[in-house]
Amino acid sequence: MADKVKRIGVLTSGGDAPGMNAAVRAVVRTALDNDIQCVGIRRGWNGLVHSDFFPMDSSSVSHILSRGGTILYTARSQEFMTPEGRDQAVATCKLLGLDAVVAIGGDGTFRGALELSRLGVPVVGVPATIDNDIGCSHYTIGFDTACNTAIECIDKLRDTMQSHERCSVVEVMGRHAGFLALYVGIAVGATAVLIPERELDFQQDVVERIRRSRLQGNTHFMIVVAEGVGSAVDIGKRIHKEIGIDPRVTVLGHIQRGGSPTARDREIATRMGYSAVKAIVDGSANSIIGTHDGKLIAIPIEEALAMTKHLQMERYDVLEAMQV
Ligand code: F6P
Questions:
Q1: pLDDT above 60 (res 177)
Q2: Ligand 1 pocket check for 174: Cβ under 6 Å
Q3: Does the predicted model carry a pTM greater than 0.85?
């Protein structure tokens, strides 16, 4: 049995994701339910470096379950990357008497978590990123909301593309991964989806698809491009050059990171936040909470960071099958 945990910190770091607030709420309320005090750390690891914190009680997380963004603010801390910055962070943890820190974020956040844990501060990570690109977890908080936001935007684009009989090239986020693009592409019935996990054959993957679609009688086309593939503007220019049509290009950008989290994101964020505190109480800190076939497990950070996750290419086959 681990020593009694008295006080923990909670922070959000990296790009924000809808559902981060739900996770913060769950951490605070689960801590209180276990007689543990909770301290909110502002602006990710920067908050520990600069002693930017505030005590949190149950009411400090009231009415945030449905809010996008993060009430704790977020940042990608350069200072925490330096040994001096990390020493300052450890000093803050000591000063506040933090027995552990819950860090909600993505890959960069967890690399920071590993560094802090090596300096003797127990950390538990909660995966939250719209990219869904965390190897140790099938699902990351925010992905579902981002998919729905992108779908809503693309449905609207389709209305005007259909009226004007145009081709639309839409760039979605995802950093180096194509999860968002492929899920969204299937859900909007895209003519083509370009993802970094698949080598691009422009003739086959774009030109031929548009051509086939036209031969089937369609007069508007929807091309979804993952940002990891390159610029949608360049793809648009190339389409124009190769087949003479004049596409309209839309970069959805940061709109995909906003909005009220969906039911899926609220539910999983609440369970993940709960599990993070439970891991601390049970003496399983220095871990990342991951979803595996619907279950949540705490995986040791180092092991978790070495894990990889591949986009299931069967989904690409599904997309193709819809284009007969
Ligand atoms: O990791 C989340 C994400 O939104 C990526 O999809 C995107 O590449 C990146 O963050 C954008 O970062 P920033 O907010 O710094 O522009």
A1: yes
A2: yes
A3: yes
